[in-house]
Specification:
Strand order of the largest sheet: 1-3-2
Low-confidence stretches: none
Number of domains: 1
Radius of gyration: 16 Å
CATH superfamily: Winged helix-like DNA-binding domain superfamily/Winged helix DNA-binding domain
Number of strands: 3
Distance between the termini: 33 Å
Strand content: 5-15%
CATH topology: Arc Repressor Mutant, subunit A
Structural class: alpha+beta
CATH class: Mainly Alpha
Number of helices: 5
Mean pLDDT: 88
Helix content: 40-55%
Largest sheet: 3 strands, antiparallel
Length: about 110
């Protein structure tokens, strides 16, 4: 990930409502959630949610898809992992003593048909 992309992603997450939306979407990865479900879960007005989803989508951290009358938003797991890698790539210059306590790699669920 390039520095400009990391700044854009971090800026999108540097707001409490957007952070809450993104964290909610991560729990529903990879399918995502409909706008109505997000709105109800977080108690947000439609216009407020729309604004924040636009910012998260613009940052590349969230994708959207339409299914019939509904729009679903999902976290861009690969992009999230790139951001985590960017933030930790120079951790203590590789010394094992300060490695993150918990190594988490989010992987999209595979759907069997």
């Amino acid at each position: 990930m390039k520095e400009n992309d990391a700044v854009k992603a971090l800026a999108a997450l540097a707001q409490p409502t957007r952070l809450a939306v993104f964290r909610l979407l991560v729990t529903a990865a990879p399918e995502g959630l409909s706008v109505g479900v997000i709105q109800e879960a977080l108690g947000l007005a439609s216009a407020t949610l729309s604004f924040h989803l636009k910012e998260l989508t613009h940052s590349g951290l969230v994708t959207s898809r339409q299914e019939g009358r509904f729009i679903y938003y999902a976290p861009a797991i690969d992009r999230m992992n790139l951001l985590i890698d960017f933030l930790t790539e120079n951790c203590c210059q590789g010394a094992e003593t300060c490695a993150p306590k918990k190594s988490v790699r989010c992987k999209p669920k595979t759907v069997t048909v």
